[in-house]
Design brief:
This protein has 290 residues and is of the alpha+beta class. 27% of the residues lie in helices and 22% in strands.
Length: 290
C-alpha cells in the first residue's frame, strides 16, 4: 500500500486531507494484510461523490423496472419489454448498459422459465400463461452504473414455480444479514447457499454477482457457493450486486451455441433470479436498487 503524507489530498478523490479521510481506514485495512484472502483495491472503494452518482443511476434503474411492472402482461413479446426499457431509460436521461455491451443486441435481458440469465429479447418470443420471467435492467447515468432484476409471474403460475420465485427473493434478505463492514464476502454467499439448499433447490456455480459503479462489471466476483470466512474483505464504500440464480432442479447449465448468450438449465428445470445493488456502509449496508 502506497504511503501518503497525512496532510496530502486523500487517495479517494474526495478533496479532503488524507488524515481526516482514509488514514484511519488504511490503518485498519493493514491488520488484514496477512490473511490469505483478498483485500479490496483502492479503485473499488467509492467516495461520497461517486456514491451519490451511483444513487442517481439507481433511481433511474428502479423507475425503469417499476415501469416494466406496470406494463408487463401475458401475450406481449419480449421485444416489447425491451422497448419499454429503452424508452423509459432514455426518457429519464439514462443509457441502457447492456445495449452493445460485448455485442449484446438489446437494452435488457429477459429470461423465461428454464432460461437462467442473459435471455435476448425477441419479436418471436411471447409471455404465456404460467411463465415466470426475469427482467434484468442495467443503467448508465452520467457515467455511473447500476443494476437490478426482478421476477414477474404471468397468469396462473403453479404453486411450485411461485415457491421457487419467493424463496429466491427471500434469499436476498438472508444474504443481506451477512453484509457487514470488516467481514468476508464469503459469509454472504454461504448464507444464501445454505438457505437455498435447505429449501431443496440448487444455486448456479458458474455465474455470480459483481462489483459495479464506475464500470458495468468490477471486482469482486460474487459467489453463492462460498464458505464463511473466505473471499474479499467487505469495507465501507464497496458497491456490488447480490443476484443468486436458483434452479428447481440440478445446478448444471449450458449456453446457447447459436446466440452465445442465453444460459439454460441443463435439465430443463425452472430457474429464478432476483438482483439488487448494495453499498457497504460504516455500520452495515444500503440497498441501492431492488
Amino acid at each position: 500500500m502506497e504511503k501518503i503524507e497525512r496532510n496530502a489530498p486523500c487517495w479517494c478523490g474526495s478533496g479532503k486531507k488524507y488524515k481526516t479521510c482514509h488514514a484511519a481506514f488504511d490503518d485498519k485495512l493493514k491488520k488484514y494484510e496477512k490473511e490469505p484472502y483478498p483485500l479490496p483495491t483502492r479503485d473499488l472503494i467509492k467516495n461520497a461523490e461517486q456514491i451519490e452518482g451511483i444513487r442517481k443511476s439507481s433511481k433511474i434503474n428502479i423507475a425503469v423496472l417499476d415501469y416494466v411492472a406496470e406494463h408487463i402482461r401475458m401475450g406481449m413479446s419480449t421485444a416489447e419489454i425491451d422497448n419499454l426499457v429503452y424508452r423509459k431509460t432514455t426518457e429519464l436521461g439514462g443509457i441502457p448498459a447492456p445495449l452493445g455491451y460485448e455485442g449484446f443486441p438489446c437494452s435488457c435481458c429477459v429470461s423465461i422459465n428454464s432460461v437462467v440469465c442473459h435471455g435476448i429479447p425477441s419479436d418471436d418470443t411471447f409471455l404465456e400463461d404460467g411463465d415466470i420471467v426475469n427482467v434484468d435492467v442495467s443503467t448508465i447515468y452520467n457515467g455511473y452504473f447500476s443494476d437490478s432484476s426482478r421476477m414477474f409471474l404471468i397468469g396462473n403460475v403453479s404453486e411450485e414455480a411461485r415457491r421457487l420465485v419467493e424463496v429466491t427473493e427471500q434469499s436476498l434478505q438472508v444474504g443481506l444479514q451477512e453484509v457487514k463492514p470488516w467481514k468476508r464476502l464469503g459469509d454472504m454467499g454461504a448464507a444464501i447457499h445454505d438457505f437455498i439448499r435447505k429449501h431443496g433447490y440448487t444455486v448456479v456455480k458458474e455465474i455470480g454477482g459483481h462489483g459495479i459503479g464506475l464500470e458495468f462489471h468490477e471486482e469482486p466476483w460474487v459467489s453463492y457457493i462460498s464458505k464463511r470466512g473466505t473471499e474479499m474483505l467487505l469495507v465501507p464504500g464497496m458497491v456490488f450486486t447480490i443476484e443468486p440464480m436458483v434452479n428447481m432442479g440440478k445446478d448444471d447449465i449450458f449456453i446457447d451455441e447459436e446466440d452465445d448468450w442465453t444460459v439454460y438449465t441443463e435439465d430443463g428445470s425452472l430457474s429464478a433470479q432476483w438482483e439488487i445493488t448494495v453499498l457497504v456502509t460504516e455500520d452495515g449496508y444500503e440497498i441501492l436498487t431492488y
